[in-house]
Amino acid sequence: MHLTPEETHRLSEPINSDFEHSFNKLDYLAFQLMLSVCILIGNIGITFIMPTVVVMDVSLSMTRPVSIEGSEEYQRKHLAAHGLTMLFEHMATNYKLEFTALVVFSSLWELMVPFTRDYNTLQEALSNMDDYDKTCLESALVGVCNIVQQEWGGAIPCQVVLVTDGCLGIGRGSLRHSLATHSQRSESNRFPLPFPFPSKLYIMCMANLEELQSTDSLDCLERLIDLNNGEGQIFTIDGPLCLKNVQSMFGKLIDLAYTPFHAVLKCGHLTADVQVFPRPEPFVVDEEIDPIPKVINTDLEIVGFIDIADISSPPVLSRHLVLPIALNKEGDEVGTGITDDNEDENSANQIAGKIPNFCVLLHGSLKVEGMVAIVQLGPEWHGMLYSQADSKKKSNLMMSLFEPGPEPLPWLGKMAQLGPISDAKENPYGEDDNKSPFPLQPKNKRSYAQNVTVWIKPSGLQTDVQKILRNARKLPEKTQTFYKELNRLRKAALAFGFLDLLKGVADMLERECTLLPDTAHPDAAFQLTHAAQQLKLASTGTSEYAGYDHNITPLQTDFSGSSTERM
Amino acid sequence: MKIFSESHKTVFVVDHCPYMAESCRQHVEFDMLVKNRTQGIIPLAPISKSLWTCSVESSMEYCRIMYDIFPFKKLVNFIVSDSGAHVLNSWTQEDQNLQELMAALAAVGPPNPRADPECCSILHGLVAAVETLCKITEYQHEARTLLMENAERVGNRGRIICITNAKSDSHVRMLEDCVQETIHEHNKLAANSDHLMQIQKCELVLIHTYPVGEDSLVSDRPKKELSPVLTSEVHSVRAGRHLATKLNILVQQHFDLASTTITNIPMKEEQHANTSANYDVELLHHKDAHVDFLKSGDNHLGGSSREGSFKETITLKWCTPRTNNIVCSSVSELHYCTGAYRISPVDVNSRPSSCLTNFLLNDPRYKIDGSLEIPLERAKDQLEKHTRYWPMIISQTTIFNMQAVVPLASVIVKESLTEEDVLNCQKTIYNLVDMERKNDPLPISTVGTRGKGPKRDEQYRIMWNELETLVRAHINNSEKHQRVLECLMACRSKPPEEEERKKRGRKREDKEDKSEKAVKDYEQEKSWQDSERLKGILERGKEELAEAEIIKDSPDSPEPPNKKPLVEMDETPPVEKSKGPVSLLSLWSNRINTANSRKHQEFAGRLNSVNNRAELYQHLKEENGMETTENGKASRQ
């Protein structure tokens, strides 16, 4: 940005040291173990990408002429090129950072233009397309899979724009053939849909609805969308095939998939107009009870700040670049504030660069403080804003979306209860900032944190019995541990109805008693006998002695009293 | 994803009839002798678990894994059946933990082998299971209340896991028929009730278990739809570890779990504390955790896990965090995390498992006790208050660059002030007054202005104005805030004459500034000093000029701008001159200036100036072509 970071008045200014508001909660002891699936370094530079693959049908059927009265003759491929030109122009203006690739296909497929931000190259390629043989959609889709996976892996969402005339080919490799054999696929020749990456498949038909419905083309194309888990849409030309109607069809695609998402970022009285990129997808929380997709607010309100260490690396639905933008009076975007070497930046953009922008302040502050801002995306829906390094020199303000719900990150507790530090009686971070209230301890500890008893494998049972035995041999020093282990075994045996075990362990303790060496402390014999007796009573199952909450307590002896004194 | 799928409600129906007291005929050695010690002693005879014990511990293991991975919204209702049904817990979240269930099972105790078998039946339990499935859970209730008119969207599905010892396939058929009939009846009842819900879908999982070595009288049968509401499957399983394995498989199927094995975890040996060996730990978790692996085609599929589990496990190699603390190791970095999944160790009590979990649970950071939940709305309030006055650029603010203002600025944003706060604010203000009296320099930015920036009293005026803006933004918070403002207003106001004098002085300066008197230099100043008769009247103005010099040299004062100012403010001739009648001051100063100018030669600079501007040190440029820097100081190479 045009402001130097030094110029910004940071959130960290001493006067507002408690501005970094944070959060308080209770009972913090253990942490719920979670297996986190993280995508580590390597993908960092491509954090905010939603690439597009344009898949263009160059089979012979695309050269079918379109009759337009009183003008030169057009072929369907010309219409397609016209539509794509419109798309590319739109992207060149609004999605400068986006990568697009162009694939052409007939019975074979070819990557005409690998992923690029250079829309001129894409545009040129459109005018240099030859005509080939028949349509073979499946192999082209396999090609798309390969290209995307090679370039972006399996986690980056990708939009696939398939441009075809609705003639789906004949014989082997035709879409009809592919669909008919779909159920007989093995893992090795899996159908390419659903795409092995988050995707949208937009099918742009150079044909109108009537034409497609006269055959089963539309049904087949709909099957394709279904196979992509419903992710995508079919577009057809309304009315006669002409440039105007093609434009309107591509206009609909642009509205749906390539409209910039504008929002207002707010933090108290500080605000900034921003573009969130890529556009956040609507999210369905529960298809049954709440089937209406949730859309994020266009007012993004910051509700607080928290240390990166406290939020850890939380799971997120999606990540987005937050770009400051300048809006003119009509509310139209006039340009993003991101640095750009483009010389013909318009003047509004230049002015935008000179007005102090809250985004810059926020980004710099989060970066310096090692914190993230929690942002409200909607009712019971939150996300976080943070600085992420794109390269060694450059970093970006990013926004990640958590799953909607009152408690998206269990280790932070309920979002609605994360209040400011200053409201806490005692600073939960300590006076020296040397402690943290997070992660929160779950109300019910998980099994691995509560010393549960599992005897499914004999080794589990044997370990527990041996623990008792080991402590029995060190009586009276280990009296407390001995009874603790004894009671743990007793409880489990009672719950499992495993009374034979109680009898067995009682026998074992009695035997130990007889094996005590002469040098043994006299208390040892008393405790062993007492414990054995109590276990035997419990093994009768009578409620008097077999109460689950009852604990066997050490026998009070003169020795035990004096031994304590000695200790 | 559906919250209210079959997995929302699981009913365990475990047979508590006399035959369940029978031994599973799998022996457990429990008297493992420690070597070197027990020569000549015969170990105690091995014992064996009853069918009941096997059933209960396997179901508890199912619940353990389920609760670990789904601590909420996945509920279990535990029923044991003999001469009647004993419902051990309810759907409420408080009842959903292992301790509750274990205590309740202990109270039931093992089946009584001497009870009359004729009176006992698993049917009681199955009927109770259907009944309990109709009962609404707190989550269902909450969702229904929330959805209002769409309450019917909340589904009611469930699963009955019945562990029994059946006599034959036809006996199994009879149990299924009974469940189906009961559902039919209870759905009729539920239709007319507000507290009950009709069962839309019920999965019956019948597990026939029998002692090892016996022939099964019941055959396995995969899932089959008995009616639109009821599906049923039959598993015939030998007791003992076979039953446990079966339930482990089922919990994975029912809750979409998958397995990951963390391999090569270095752990210290008990016997040899200095050496460490590598261990593997197998974990269960939701299978979504594997989606990205499988998609990437790079599946780390290792061999099948130990102990006869059916499934494949993905192996991940352990990587020891740089610090001893998994949380702190990631302090400075946010990783792109696509999912975090709760886990449950397959073998929870094994030493490697507990080593791993203890390592992960052991977060050395200080923990706090006590309960404190602060509404998020308070955070929004606070942000609102803190940002009422918040200059975004350092050069736009004076007070936030002054350490002396901190005590006031840090408390004034509070909702309410203590007496001590007010006192501190007042002290701050007095301190500022003191600074002004002592003419302490202020960190006023000169960005965007020409020359040396505003004069000292102008600086203080700017500072006081800014402070007033800050305090005024908060006066409606409380009466005490009001008092701070009162104090501020009282302190910054000067006796009227002085104020008036200051004002005049300022006007003159303004003029001077705007008519580009920035060229004033030593000579001019000397001439001012020479004219002794003016001393009395213009003392104030002279002082200011002297101060201006001090500011320039003071290390505290900001560097003069070396950038081109963003906005050229003073291109236009001063408005002041043409506006309104000429003031007494300007008449007077004009006269003095004219008088003075006669006493000295006019500067070459002023004579050669264009638009009253003169370029300084032109000779330097001419001499060596070097650029001059700001303030006329030639840059030192």
TrEMBL record, chain A:
It comes from Camelus dromedarius. GO terms for molecular function: metal ion binding. This is Integrator complex subunit 14. InterPro entries: INTS14, IntS14_b-barrel, IntS14_C, VWF_A, vWFA_dom_sf. Keywords: Magnesium, Membrane, Metal-binding, Nucleus, Transmembrane, Transmembrane helix. Residues 453-560 form the Integrator complex subunit 14 C-terminal domain. Residues 52-166 form the VWFA domain. Component of the Integrator complex, composed of core subunits INTS1, INTS2, INTS3, INTS4, INTS5, INTS6, INTS7, INTS8, INTS9/RC74, INTS10, INTS11/CPSF3L, INTS12, INTS13, INTS14 and INTS15. The core complex associates with protein phosphatase 2A subunits PPP2CA and PPP2R1A, to form the Integrator-PP2A (INTAC) complex. INTS14 is part of the tail subcomplex, composed of INTS10, INTS13, INTS14 and INTS15. It holds the Pfam family VWA_2. Residues 258-405 form the Integrator complex subunit 14 beta-barrel domain. One of its GO terms (cellular component) is integrator complex.
